[in-house]
Amino acid sequence: MFEPVRTRRTFEEAAEQIAHKVRTGELRVGDKLPGERALSVQMEISRPTLREAARILVDAGLLEVRRGPGGGMFIAADVVPVELVREKSTMRVGEVAAVLEARRLLEPRVAQLAAVRATDDDFASLERSIEAMRVICARGHTPEDEDRLLQLDVQFHLGLARAADNPTVETLMRTLIRQLEIARDMAMHLPLVPEWTIEIHERTLAAVRSGDPAEVEAVMDEHLAQLERTWEQETARALIRPMPDFLLPHGGW
User: Fold this and answer.
1) What is the phi-psi region of residue 127: left when phi exceeds 0, alpha when psi lies from -120 to 50, beta otherwise?
2) What is the per-residue burial (b if ≥16 Cβ within 10 Å, else e) of 59-92?
3) What is the distance, to the nearest Å, from the Cα of residue 17 to the centroid of all Cα atoms in its chain?
4) Which of 132, 197, 122 shows the shortest CA–CA distance to 159?
5) pLDDT tens-digit series, residues 148-169
6) Between 7 and 75, the higher pLDDT residue
7) How many helices (H) and strands (E) does the chain have?
8) Mean pLDDT confidence for 122-139
9) Residue 35, Cβ neighbours under 10 Å: how many?
10) What is the pLDDT of the chain when averaged over all its residues?
11) CB 119: neighbour CB atoms within 10 A?
């Protein structure tokens, strides 16, 4: 479940790895982490280093350590403070454009594959992400809800990748989505519009359910173009590069 930790500041990477699994929905409130010995073996770190990582997460309110029989480390919150998952590196403007181009190359095909392979459980998981957004909007969302809404957006897109039923594709999408989060933090500061996000997710889910590749292509084109337009507005640059027709958006922007 967890990967070896390789950097010098191992306790920080260990904390970020656990936090990222909460952000992407792999770990949820109430989930119990592996025991200290097992988790330190998985991450290939010492137990004192793991305890330091746990302390960071406890201080952030993300982890709860319970003592005694039945105790252990439990996930205590579903919203991850941004500083726990913020990438330490930065991207140049051109690199952000490359991430958006890679997304247009990959994600519509992922959604079309999901339209062929998704199970009832996959559809239920995608619907839960949308419903959680609806609940936030129904009670009147505030700026404090933005991190949670962004996490739900991430979980929806990873849900599409899981529905494609190809572990390599899912790994590629996880890498791409992490880079998109960095790009959003760095270069895109327009406020989230939850109503639009819910509506486009509902239509994406309906298109995937339909099994019609053309319908999936059309809705994914609109879905991806929104972030591309935001990038153009924020940077005053155009995403115009020599590209084959299948990479060009169809929305006329």
Assistant:
1) alpha
2) ebebbbbeeeeeeebebbebbbeeebbeeeeebe
3) 13
4) 122
5) 888 899 899 999 999 999 999 9
6) 75
7) 9, 2
8) 94
9) 12
10) 84
11) 12
Percentage of the chain beyond pLDDT 70 is 83
Looking at residue 93, what is its pLDDT? 66
Cα separation of 44 and 2, whole Å? Answer: 10
- The amino acid occupying position 213 is P
If you search the block for the tokens 């839960």, which residue do you land on? 128
Closest CA to 49 of 84, 81, 5: 5
With a CB cutoff of 8 Å and minimum separation 6, the contacts of 247 are 101, 104, 105
Q: Which of 226, 217, 219 is nearest to 245 (CA)?
A: 217
What is the pLDDT, as a whole number, of residue 180? 82
The DSSP output letter for 35 is P
Among 3-7, 156-160, 220-224, the range scoring the smallest mean pLDDT is: 3-7
**Which residues neighbour 114 within 8 Å (Cβ) at sequence distance 6 or greater?**
122, 160, 161, 163, 164, 208
**Within a 10 A sphere around the Cβ of 214, how many other Cβ atoms?**
10
* CA pair distance 59, 91, nearest whole angstrom: 29
Question: What distance in Å separates the CA atoms of residue 105 and residue 92, rounded to the nearest whole number?
Answer: 20
**Most distant CA pair in the chain, distance:** 62
Answer for the pair 83, 23: CB distance below 8 angstroms, yes or no: no
Write the single-letter amino acid at 244: P
